[in-house]
Amino acid sequence: MNEDNPLDDGFGDPLVAHVAATGAPNHERPQLDFFISRRGASARVAQEVAEVLTAAGYSLLVQDHDIPHGANFILAMHDALKRCRHFIALLNRDYDSTPFTTAEWTNFYAIAAQSGGERRFIVLRIEDCDPQGLFSAVVFGDLVGIDNPHERRNRILAAAEGRAGETRRRPKLFENVPPPDLNFTGRDAPLAKLFDILGDGVQPAANKIAAVHGLGGVGKTSLVAEYAHRRAEAYAGVWWAPAQERTLLIASLASLAGRLDAKLAAEANQERAARAALAHIAGRAEPPFLLVYDNVDSPDTVRELLPISGAHLLLSTRWADWGGQATEVRLEALSPGAAATFLQKRAMREDLDGAARLAEALGFLPLALDHAGAFCKLTRTSFAGYVERIDSRITRAPKGASYPASVAVTFGLAIEKVAAECPAAERLLAFCAYLAPELIPLDLIDREIPDEEQRAEAMMALSAVSLIEHPNLEGEQPVVSVHRLVQAAMRARLAERGETQDTLARVIQALVDQFPTGHFRHAASMSRRARLLPHVLASRECLQSSGFESPAAGRLFSIFGRYLRTRGDFAAAELLMRDAVAANERTFGRYHVYVAVALHDLALLYLNSGRYEEAKALIPRAIEVGERTLDRKAADAVTQLNSLANLLHHVGRKAEAEALYREAIDFMDASDQRECTDMANLLNNLGNFLRSVGRHREAETYYQRAITIGTIVDGRHHPNVARHVHNLANMLRTEGRYAEAEPLYREAVADLSNGLGPEFPITARAQRNLAALLLLTDRPDEALRYAEPAFRVHSKSGAEPGWTKDSARTYVQVLETLGRTDEALSVRKQFGLEKMAVQTAR
Predict the structure, then answer these.
(1) Is the dihedral of CA 774, 780, 783, 789 positive or negative?
(2) Burial of 70 (0-12, 13-18, 19+ CB in 10 A)
(3) Which domain holds residue 267?
(4) Are 209 and 310 found together in one domain?
(5) Does residue 4 register a pLDDT over 50?
């Protein structure tokens, strides 16, 4: 098309343009089938739509091609809108941001509304945006994410001919899916197999799971992403979850839960939230969801996280044997012909013989082909020249790596190029090699490459040879992604040069610096931790595999161990907390403040999760180290004071504990940190102490303050706040204020059950205490509803002996009150209560 001469563009209506320019009478002008209205950078799509409609025999006018320069634009538009039967709006984000397009569509919309259906207003979405107002109510076609020319033609014609209902919009929930590969080639057979396995997307009751498996670099993720883009419209939503570690998969599904149901966004226990997401999906009507678990390490990673119904599941994995849990789709390297075609498309050149030789040298692996094609395109290297570069290198590639030699060589060439032209690019890639591959925040690398221009130049150089990608995440901070095998190749390069330890140390320190010491918990901080968790876990794995130490590793593991504990993932929290203790001891010695804090964290984790024997064994050491290393001038003095006070209180050293609690609260007040989770916990802890020594009125004041602050920071129904509410109820019951205590107990039981789960020891403790109150107010039948599950949980979980005996006593008293003496006697014998009088519940 020659835009300088719209009469020669090959698809317009020369007569329309001529008359518009000359002002010939309207009655002499033929009618038009379509008027195409567009705004902004959509000229290419306007031309495509016009070509499709012209080839189908329709007449049309495109405003900025068929109205020549110098014509009376307003008059020509007025005339065209009167003459056209149908109006096509090419909808992008700024379509209705000017008075011209607004005037066009609103005028025609009014005309169409009075035509009895003879004139149609057609919206064709060409950019990822949500139609608003009247646009949202119009049946429209959708070209977003559709790259196949045949499919695009079909959609354009379907919309133009009033058949737009045959194609459905991409679902609103379409998250984290990689962009489609415009050079996707040679995968028709495996793609067809996925279509066959998962069907047409209208059977939510079926448990349809497909596992795409194969070697690294064979294109598993690209195939799965292609399926997701092509079939998105058949699903109620598409959710892409990183699954190289179970913790990351759970975190992603927990995030999905919050998107599906706003009430689940505050769920503290991530595994519980993940299961809630799957349950929510299972309870939906048609159509199903599409879930993608990317880079699954083994079946154990997805244990108990497979959808029962309501969803189709796609796994990308190297694990070949799924034992009947999934239909397996093995992905091989590309065929020689497809590989040669892919290379030519990627490099944008025609050289079939050279492409065939290079494809063979690279083992027909899509990932290696993609990077080689990008390299040849950028450097104008011939395919034959690239083969010469890699022939000798393949024999020197790292042996025993998790990727083929051809991949290592391909990446090596690309890295050498950017290193020669932009040293900062290699430094950036080295830094990213020890993080999770996806969604690396750009602000994390600011200190690594402080100069903004150098950073931008480095990213452009890496992007040019496909070593990094820039996912476009609306509303999110800028991020980059690096393929796992690119990271592996870069790590091998650093190891050869002896630079692994220094690079890893910088990565760990950069992660620690995101959370300055004394930076107390609040919503923004917790959100930041959630985003950085995958990178912390990746760097931890790199540290373990390399055998190197980082002075900051222990602090990093402590920060994220506490985060995971707060989120209810105790198993993952314990791993990081154990690592924190070991790393700090290796770095700083047995007696250091970081060791003390890490020991306190681990001991409190055991207490919170009901593992009291392990806590009992650890607490004396934790107190000893804490007392010897307490630094009241340190920025994290509050953490030290609080954790040490908790342990002293637990072992009965009450006067020392009270002094430390009050000192920590004074510290928080002085540093203007009166409204944060840490302050609420401190006030609650001091309230517990005061109640334990009979100072109930003082305790009530501190509990109320803890609840008020916790509600502001975390929300009234957060498990942390539920604990404060429960403790206040305990104090009120002790004082005989039963009517005030009961609603608080019921609130705490409900919120702990929802937040932590009914099998959690603290939840059971609240149930036991509510049962005791109901007994005191002569309601044994209702008391049984809480006493029985509390007894079952405590006796099964190995909870603190005091808690278990309290539950047993309450359960026995309920049974005896109800006349079930045989059952009561059995429990008495089981827990050594035969000679103990079952006292009135306390």
Answers:
(1) positive
(2) exposed
(3) 174-330
(4) yes
(5) no
